[in-house]
Amino acid sequence: MSQQHADKYYVPAQSPWPIVGAVALFLIAVGAGNVVMQHHKGTDGYGGLILSLGMITLMVMLIGWFRDQINESMAGMHNAQLGQSYRQGMSWFIFSEVMFFAAFFGALFYTRMISVPWLGGASNNAMTNEVLWPTFEAMWPLTQTPSGLVTEAMGWNGLPLINTVILLISSVTLHFAHVGLEEQKRGQLMWLLGLTILLGISFLGLQVEEYVHAYTEMGLTLQSGVYGNTFFMLTGFHGLHVTLGTILLIVMFCRVLAGHFTPKNQFAFMAASWYWHFVDVVWVMLFIFVYVL
Amino acid sequence: MSSIVEQDIHADDHHHHAPGGGIKRWLYTTNHKDIGTLYLWFAFIMFLVGGSMAMVIRAELFEPGLQIVEPNFFNQMTTVHGLVMVFGAVMPAFTGLANWMVPMMIGAPDMALPRMNNWSFWILPFAFAILLASLFMEGGGPNFGWTFYAPLSTTYSNDSTALFVFSVHIMGASSIMGAINVIVTIMNMRAPGMTYMKMPLFVWTWFITAFLLIAVMPVLAGAVTMVLTDKFFGTSFFSAAGGGDPVLFQHIFWFFGHPEVYIMILPAFGIISQIVPTFARKPLFGYASMVYATASIALLSFVVWAHHMFTTGMPVAGELFFMIATMLISVPTGVKVFNWVATMWRGAMTFEMPMLFALAFIVLFTIGGFSGLMLAITPVDFQYHDTYFVVAHFHYVLVTGAIFSIFAAAYYWLPKWSGVMFDKKLANWHFWCSLVSVNVLFFPMHFVGLAGMPRRIPDYALQFADFNKWISIGGFAFGLSQLFFLALLIKACRKQGEPAAAKPWEGAEGLEWEIPSPAPYHTFETPPVIK
What we know:
Chain A is an all-alpha fold. Chain A has helices at residues 17-41, 47-74, 80-119, 126-132, 159-182, 186-218, 225-257, 267-292. By secondary structure, chain B is an all-alpha fold. Chain B is globular. Mean pLDDT of chain B is 94; it is low at 1-16. Classes of the chains: A mainly alpha, B mainly alpha. At the A-B interface, helix 1, helix 3 and helix 7 of A face helix 1, helix 4, helix 5, helix 6 and helix 7 of B.
């Protein structure tokens, strides 16, 4: 890369947004911590207020920061090298997200392959089973925990399968929206991007329905042992990422309406679409390891 | 390695954004030098805060019996001392050094993402404000050790665990953003001709460190999240009653934790590899092997985590695997120590302050490395585990390793940062007092550990009394010795001292010595050409 520099570097001007962002994260951390503690103790407090204040500050910061960024980019102040930095930065960010999910997948594999079988007496753990919970039998999905909680397992053919199809299609539509951008076909770009957003929203809607079904009819909750834990933490964090991805795509849609993006200047669109493909891949992993197997 | 053929130095800030006055300069800054300075001062303040907690610990352990603090408060001190030193002192100090030096060493005008750079710094003071404030809450702050093992951090912890979790979350966000910035700067901002294998070793080691950070900080975020839900939302990741396992916590934590300890030592290797050639007046011996050794250490760090868990319970095949993988790390580490020694071999050596700290590093870090090798041997680890031997080991690698390297780096580059030579008298007092006291402090810990004194306990058996008295005396002396450094830093910041030349060290090489001292606010606005 270093051979293709512009002969002048671009160094951005000072900005108030980073410190606003740091204050926002501070308020969010304090607020969330207090919300959790209040919830635990069953008392009232200012946690919720501080948390909302933090979220609002974060929103203001994001809007302000991105507005400055977009204005500078539209004014042609960014050079090719900066674009390259953005793309590499986004790739590394997605890699860090992969590692975040890896922690929860690791927990899933560990409980399935090691802790649950061992509690059931596998390997050299006969006495573990005998002394702790002699009636416990290892199984996966873990529909009865060692301490006796009973739940139902979520099947894969039904909503999860439909959701898989929806997300896979959305990746394809987003790809061809991008092709539309590259080939200057604004119509194709706009309607395929819109369709992707609708698919994302329907995915989220169906996931809410699945959660409601799990909580009200199946007795499968966040508290139902490691099966429920891994199920809700993995699908829940994925759902949060789909929500974020959908918001990103909506912002992109508005920017397309405003006439932004050219084949040469489209980093934000590209980053949002990389992010979308990434959550899609995570879902495929989830579908295989959480639902099917 | 590399030298400048022609370059265009902008000492003049004739156009955009020269430093504004007052507090806004520091709050809004996008300048890598300003942000580096902020990181370094923050790290030093945290070093003193964490150090005063260590003083509380050593005061309590001065004599057997409980005299000064409650056991619960003692536990909070050991916990927060560890967290502050790891996340507040060592890591931000290295990030500060990277901010200052990486752009100057590769001929870049600034970091690749300067605004995010500012964000990653300013998160830190807030994160530590939360962590330290939790000490004053009803029920006290975190008291489960910096490793926050379940069920200590779940079933048996106090409510402030929620604040601990969220402060770790935002610290992690800061580290990840900082690391992304460093790695993108190195990949994308090198001056023309600065190929990977021409990069100074400090840049190389930070490149690999940044990769480790991006890979494992999210895993830490996952670990604290599971602790949060286990404690407050009824999940049972770490509770056998629901099918989980407390040992799972240790696996996840150490999958983060072991790469983390290399995050805290690889940049140190880079610093030593910059300083030793300068004062031996010879090129670094085995540059390429240094790069490959760093990469090997980083890769191996992902497959050794369970050597922290030998006594936790694991199939024997697992214990053997982790023992052998761990011992394998001593090969690339040995390559490094060999190369430093070979660089000095028949060199024209002088012993200025950076070199003294570097030499102390090489000797004392190697002691820590060898005790690590002892701990890696599964059967003997059953004897050493959770004793002061472990405390001795990791303080040798972190204090006389990481922190001594940071001191070495500060003395090496301070003339470039401040434009004045530091006060040599204070520096000598700082070095010699630190060197003697740190060994009085940590060396006897090996013996009390081998004799069976457990770590993280506020009281101990009478036979350990004499050694502990010496350890505490060493501790207080080491703590006080740092005040020399504080005085020296204040003098340097107030520009008291003789002006420093662009290259104050005769044998130094690299782009950072081609620009004036102090380094102008903006450097390399047009890329230098590197032969």
